[in-house]
Specification:
The chain is mostly helical and 191 residues long. Helix content is 73%, strand content 0%. Helix 4 crosses helix 5.
Length: 191
Amino acid sequence: MTLSEDATARTRLLHAAARLFYADGIAATGINAITAAAGVARMSLYNNFSSKDELMLAYIEARHQEWLGLYAHRVGDSPDPKAAVLAVFDAYIDHADLGYEHGFRGCGLLNAAAELPVNSPGRDSVRRHKEQVEQILVAQLSRVTTPDDAAGLAEHCSFLLEGAMARAGLEGTSRRLEQAKQLAAGLIADL
């Protein structure tokens, strides 16, 4: 994403933090690097965010919203619940195929969570995102099978997604996510 010169300081800071947090990690990214990459004064960061932690939470929320947008684009107005399930996989593939500065390193949310202490607000945000993805799967699968079966299949699909995302991140390609989508299609084919 290229920012215009008139983008707000907040937008520029979020964009810079997103790029640096994903490429280098949250702990390794200092405030000075973020403000330099954003082209703003250090005070601009504190005028928009009370702390680096607040900026990190905004980054996590922005990644979540970005994924929801990718999913909404993929699912469109499809009335087919099976297609909507596979659209979840497509949105993960789309996320993996975005042009990252230093290549694809896996799920940015899980990468962030790995750096944060248990029960921290950031980890809780990541957990809520993953739960929402699974609930999207449950909702779609509930349209074609019983609630219990839908929950079980959604959990299977979540495991496929997250395992494939971990491997895809290690390998730097979306190939494992494509394979996971094919496996999920087989799981739901006869519903």
